[in-house]
Design a protein that fits this description.
The complex is a heterodimer of chains A (about 290) and B (about 280). Chain A is an all-alpha fold. Chain A has a single domain, classed as MetI-like (MetI-like fold), CATH 1.10.3720.10. Chain A is built from twelve helices and two strands; from the N terminus they run αββααααααααααα. In chain A, a hairpin with a 6-residue loop joins strand 1 and strand 2. Chain B is mainly alpha-helical and about 280 residues long. Chain B has a single domain, classed as MetI-like (MetI-like fold), CATH 1.10.3720. Chain B is about 70% helix and about 0% strand. Chain B is built from 15 helices and no strands. Classes of the chains: A mainly alpha (about 290), B mainly alpha (about 280).
Chain lengths: ~290, ~280
């Protein structure tokens, strides 16, 4: 907080009013509503609701379907996070190193940031299409007959590739700016002491990038959980049946298609708890963010 | 040394190929007619149907009701992107100004209420949010589309960080010269924040333009569809046909991609600065 501040009885409240009003109506109220209805069994035809305690939670957590979706979400999140961070780091290190064409590379590697997830999903649908998709033709040469939308594994593969594609730019931008923040004198000292570029990367550059990496890890997990909704929705083409979906997609499915308000709310609450934990970790990391100067 | 540099370029070029080629193929496919795409697959070279396809997509009504065309969706996307970005900047600057520059009771409570929204993305509270907006009669309106999205505090957080970095001496000097809170905000703080406002505007515009889940729930009236929201609906109609109109679906995708990409590329340095600094 500032040392010098204005004092005014009314003005600060007036300034805060729009934000607080929106937050209360569109955030606090729905969140409270989600928690409340997670303890109720709603009549599907709208005739009242019954208090059922934690039944919705036990039903959700013990259902085999939920377990399957949770497992897929974990695998999906792992691959999307790991691959998009890894590829982006490699590209950022190289883009930081080259002299000729550095800014063209930078632009070409980051503009996909502006592509909306469902549009990325649509492009994925095209490229992985069974009749017209070049990627399917490509893998067919190796004897892999891909069937997107039919085969569980193939669909997961296509979803992961598309989600990684969409996420690389963000990671790239952060890694590159992290790399450019490393002081030249540290790098020069390192190159005098150690000739192997590989070793220099792992012992000097990588640890210096660790704060950025941890921060991005959280960002990527959040992305794989929530922001991939559009990709998944387009790629399963509204027929989730046997297709892989994530936990957030299931909240939407059960709530809007299945009309299971209590179950959907219980799933929301579970996710809220998960995000809450992630955010706490993130805040602690930012607080302790190490700065080497 | 030389050999190493060649490898660096090879890796970067492979990366560029991976990032760029999907959109290039989409663009190429959108310039052919449906039968060619159906028979020969995704096209690698430009075809002769560019103008026809884009004209169809932009001005010929499609969808289920045959009421909405690409132009209307483009307009709606603009409204959502601009409305969201401008609304968010105004609201969050005011709130951040109050939090940083005023001493008042319950300041920290207000702070925490606002920042609690960072904890929960819209996706996890989607069903109750929908019900409440429905009760308020805001389904199928622009305000129902835009206002609930503003609830998250990313912008406020960003401006708070920035205001905290503004030196105290400015406020002291302004007060000695007799400037009130409003004058200080208008004549000193806003001009100082120009670059920050531009950066956050770009990020928020792209974020608003690319919204999918919320517009999908909020708009059932096709005349309010945004491009990103309309894509799936129209894909179902076109791809469900005997010869799927992949070319037109892809032309629509290109329309949805071009405006935000242009903004990001043109204002690249602001955008990168805003992104990297706002998420710290």
């Amino acid at each position: 907080m500032k040392k010098v501040q204005f004092k005014s009885p009314l003005l600060p409240y007036l300034l805060l009013l729009p934000q607080l009003a929106i937050v209360t109506i569109f955030f606090l109220w729905p969140a409270a509503e989600a928690v409340r209805s997670s303890f109720y069994l709603e009549d599907p035809f709208g005739f009242g609701s019954t208090f059922v305690g934690i039944d919705n939670f036990t039903d959700t957590l013990t259902s085999s379907d939920y377990g399957r979706v949770a497992r897929f979400t974990a695998v999906f999140t792992f691959f999307v996070t790991f691959l998009s961070l890894g590829i982006a780091l490699l590209l950022a290190v190289k883009a930081d190193k080259v002299i000729r064409g550095a800014s063209s590379y930078k632009t070409l590697l980051m503009w996909v940031y502006a592509v909306a997830p469902p549009v990325a999903g649509l492009i994925g649908v095209l490229l992985f299409d069974q009749h017209v998709g070049p990627i399917v033709d490509f893998f067919a040469m190796f004897g892999w007959q891909m069937q997107i939308g039919v085969n569980y594994f193939d669909t997961s593969f296509a979803m992961i590739v598309t989600s990684v594609w969409k996420q690389i730019p963000v990671n790239f931008i952060f890694f590159l700016s992290g790399l450019q923040g490393i002081s030249k004198s540290v790098q020069e000292a390192a190159s005098i002491d150690c000739r192997s570029g590989m070793r220099r990367f792992w012992t000097v550059t990588f640890p210096l990038l660790a704060p950025t990496g941890f921060f991005l890890l959280i960002i990527n997990i959040t992305y794989a959980f929530f922001d991939t909704f559009g990709i998944i929705d387009v790629m399963v083409k509204g027929e989730p049946g046997n297709n892989p979906v994530t936990l957030v997609y299931k909240v939407y499915l059960d709530g809007f298609r299945g009309n299971d308000l209590g179950g959907s709310s219980a799933q929301s609450v579970i996710l809220m708890a998960l995000v809450f934990i992630l955010t706490i970790i993130q805040f602690r990391l930012i607080e302790r963010r190490v700065h080497y100067t | 040394m030389k050999k190493n540099q060649i490898w660096d370029h090879v890796i970067l070029l492979v990366g560029v190929f991976f990032m760029v080629s999907p959109v290039v193929l989409t663009l190429m496919t959108s310039t052919h007619d449906a039968i060619t795409v159906y028979k020969e697959g995704v096209q690698f070279l430009p075809g002769g149907k560019f103008l026809e396809n884009y004209e169809t997509v932009l001005f010929q009504a499609g969808g289920f009701t045959k009421e909405v065309d690409g132009f209307v969706m483009l307009k709606n996307s603009m409204i959502l992107g601009l409305g969201f970005a401008i609304g968010k900047i105004i609201i969050s600057m005011l709130a951040a100004y109050a939090i940083v520059y005023f001493r008042f009771p319950m300041a920290s409570l207000c702070f925490w209420i606002i920042f609690a929204t960072l904890l929960l993305p819209l996706e996890v509270r989607i069903l109750p949010s929908y019900e409440i907006v429905q009760q308020l009669g805001m389904v199928n309106t622009y305000s129902g589309l835009i206002v609930p999205l503003i609830a998250s505090a990313t912008g406020t957080f960003f401006f708070r960080q920035f205001f905290l970095s503004v030196p105290d001496e400015l406020l002291e000097a302004a007060r000695i010269d007799g400037a009130g809170p409003w004058k200080f905000f208008k004549d000193i703080l806003v001009p100082l924040s120009q670059t920050m406002i531009a950066a956050i505007f770009i990020i928020m515009f792209v974020f608003g333009w690319n919204q999918y889940l919320w517009p999908t729930l909020m708009t059932t009236d096709e005349s309010l569809f945004t491009l990103v929201r309309g894509i799936k609906q129209i894909l179902q109609v076109w791809v469900g046909a005997q010869i799927p109109a992949f070319n037109e679906a892809m032309a629509l995708a290109i329309l949805a991609i071009v405006p935000p990409v242009l903004i990001v590329v043109i204002f690249q340095s602001w955008f990168v600065k805003g992104l990297v600094e706002s998420d710290k």
